[in-house]
């Protein structure tokens, strides 16, 4: 595996974690939204990652990660009785998203740490490559 493959793998992981951070931000931004029916209520979204394998010229396989799709959570929505709310339906209920803010904060920390780790992998690879070039001088 070449140093450039390592950089490609880290770059793909950073891109995937960026999508993960964006979905967390979207989930947190919509956590307090309300609706008068279940069909229009925001549902938590999560990215699904997939490994990518690429055949390289030397016979070895380079790999990485990509976002296969973004799926909506199937967890039940929160139905709250609040007949005085302007968005309440005929029965007096409002619907809140199925966003768990504690889980989303944990996802945000995990994605952030993963992103930072891949930045460190890229920096270390760059330093190793530069030192290897300096050996030839």
From TrEMBL:
Annotated localization: Bacterial flagellum basal body
Domain Flagellar basal body rod protein N-terminal: 7-32
Name of a matching Pfam family: Flg_bbr_C
Keyword flag Phosphoprotein: no
Record keyword Hydrolase present: no
All copies of domain Flagellar basal-body/hook protein C-terminal, residue ranges: 91-135
Annotated keywords: Bacterial flagellum, Cell projection, Cilium, Flagellum
Tree of life domain: Bacteria
Subunit: The basal body constitutes a major portion of the flagellar organelle and consists of four rings (L,P,S, and M) mounted on a central rod. The rod consists of about 26 subunits of FlgG in the distal portion, and FlgB, FlgC and FlgF are thought to build up the proximal portion of the rod with about 6 subunits each.
Family: Belongs to the flagella basal body rod proteins family.
Protein name as catalogued: Flagellar basal-body rod protein FlgC
Recorded name of the encoding gene: flgC
